[in-house]
């Protein structure tokens, strides 16, 4: 009987463990960010931004006097490795919050996130995870890929130079399992805006671009007004370099992950981008530039660095709102996120609003353009509604 009672107590303890108050001297957040592979270039820059923002906050007293401790782990995209990293962060480090750069890793870890009830920020999540019943602990600081694609289509539909006929659009993607979750719906939305949608172009790998005329033959025969590039910025750069000699009148519009300073050599390329490029004249950039000048003035930074910085600022805001006088807990951090209403991060992002029914931060973004080697704001915020 005694053994049974002890076992029952142990089961109860394990069941309530995610809701226990965390009393450590530092507030621990975990971050899984890729340093290699498809997302390695932008991931490394994002990681630098994460760590610098944490350092900035700690030098100014931390969060209610507690140090913000960012436990950064390389996301190798290998399931066994990122699952082991997740278990370490959950069981050994007992993190309050988790950040995942990769949407693919987020999808794979979702059952574990739900089970352990860890509030988790991702760089972006597929639209089907906006359903709170499927992902009650998942949040993002940027709109879903579907919402961003809708914004891009709205931008095309409103261009005055294409009002005399239906604008022709194609979607170009590298192999990416997360694309399947929104591409059909994005095309359906584009048709409601009176856009003509051409054949999809899927590129299996970088090596296939050694024969671009074969891979991109539909592009040349269809001659779209716009091609929407859904890929990494490095892949977009290689593709744009290869098509320079193909005599196309097509304009290029990049997804959020495709558009950053890597494309600075391609004047005229557009990008739907909710995150401010490094150095843009918005209020929230002042502290980023000051930190850069103090700690590494001779380095260069990219939009991904800014994304890492602002991610930590949003995390710190949620931690600061989570009733620290009662002790920090994961559940209170989740509820703190759900208290955000038009929260402004110095113009670096669109204002953030989370609710208990919708963990998307917003459904708006600006369009940027590459001009004279710089990423410049081309429009104000374009919204598509929730």
Give structural notes.
By secondary structure, the protein is of the alpha/beta class. The chain folds into two domains: 200 residues, Rossmann fold (3-Layer(aba) Sandwich); 144 residues, 3-Layer(aba) Sandwich (Rossmann fold), CATH 3.40.50. The strands form two sheets. Strands 6, 7, 8, 9, 10, 11, 12, 13 and 14 form a nine-stranded mixed beta sheet that branches. Strands 2-1-3-4-5 form a five-stranded parallel beta sheet, sandwiched between helices. The chain starts with a helix and ends with a strand. 37% of the residues lie in helices and 17% in strands.
Question: How many strand segments?
Answer: 14
Helix-strand category = alpha/beta
Q: What kind of assembly state do the chains in view correspond to?
A: single chain
- Which architecture name of the largest domain does CATH use? 3-Layer(aba) Sandwich
Q: What's the CATH H-level superfamily name of the largest domain?
A: Response regulator
Distance between the termini: 55 Å
CATH class of the largest domain: Alpha Beta
- In this structure, how is the largest beta sheet organized? 9 strands, mixed
Please give the count of helices.
12
Estimate what percentage of residues fall within beta strands: 15-25%
Average predicted local confidence, pLDDT: 88
Fill in the CATH topology of the largest domain: Rossmann fold
């Amino acid at each position: 009987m005694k053994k049974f009672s002890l076992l029952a107590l142990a089961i109860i303890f394990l069941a309530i463990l995610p809701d226990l108050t965390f009393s450590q001297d530092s507030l621990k957040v975990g971050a899984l960010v890729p340093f290699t592979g498809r997302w390695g270039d932008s991931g490394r820059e994002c990681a630098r931004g994460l760590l610098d923002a944490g350092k900035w906050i700690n030098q100014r007293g931390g969060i209610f006097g507690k140090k913000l401790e960012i436990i950064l782990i390389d996301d190798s995209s290998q399931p066994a490795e990122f699952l082991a990293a997740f278990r370490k962060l959950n069981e050994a480090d007992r993190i309050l919050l988790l950040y995942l750069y990769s949407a693919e890793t987020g999808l794979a870890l979702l059952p574990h996130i739900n089970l352990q009830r860890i509030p988790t920020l991702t760089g972006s999540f597929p639209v089907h995870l906006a359903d709170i019943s499927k992902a009650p602990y998942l949040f993002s600081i940027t709109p879903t890929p579907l919402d961003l694609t809708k914004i891009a289509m709205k931008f095309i539909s409103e261009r005055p130079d294409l009002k005399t006929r239906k604008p022709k659009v194609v979607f170009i993607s590298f192999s990416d399992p997360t694309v399947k979750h929104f591409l059909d719906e994005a095309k359906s939305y584009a048709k409601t805006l009176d856009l003509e949608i051409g054949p999809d172009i899927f590129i299996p790998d970088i090596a296939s671009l050694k024969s671009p005329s074969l891979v991109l033959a539909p592009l040349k025969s269809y001659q779209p007004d716009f091609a929407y590039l859904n890929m990494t910025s490095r892949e977009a750069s290689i593709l744009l370099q290869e098509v320079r000699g193909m005599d196309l009148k097509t304009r290029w519009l990049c997804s959020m992950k495709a558009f950053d300073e890597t494309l600075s050599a391609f004047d005229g390329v557009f990008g739907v981008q909710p995150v401010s490029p490094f150095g843009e004249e918005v209020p929230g950039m002042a502290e980023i530039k000051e930190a850069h000048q103090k700690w590494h003035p001779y380095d260069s930074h990219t939009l991904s660095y800014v994304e890492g910085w602002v991610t930590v600022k949003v995390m710190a805001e949620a931690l600061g709102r989570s009733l620290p006088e009662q002790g920090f807990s994961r559940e209170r951090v989740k509820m703190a996120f759900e208290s955000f209403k038009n929260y402004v991060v110095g113009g670096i992002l669109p204002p953030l609003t989370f609710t208990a029914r919708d963990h998307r931060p917003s459904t708006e973004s600006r369009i940027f353009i590459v001009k004279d080697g710089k990423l410049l704001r081309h429009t104000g915020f374009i919204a598509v509604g929730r």
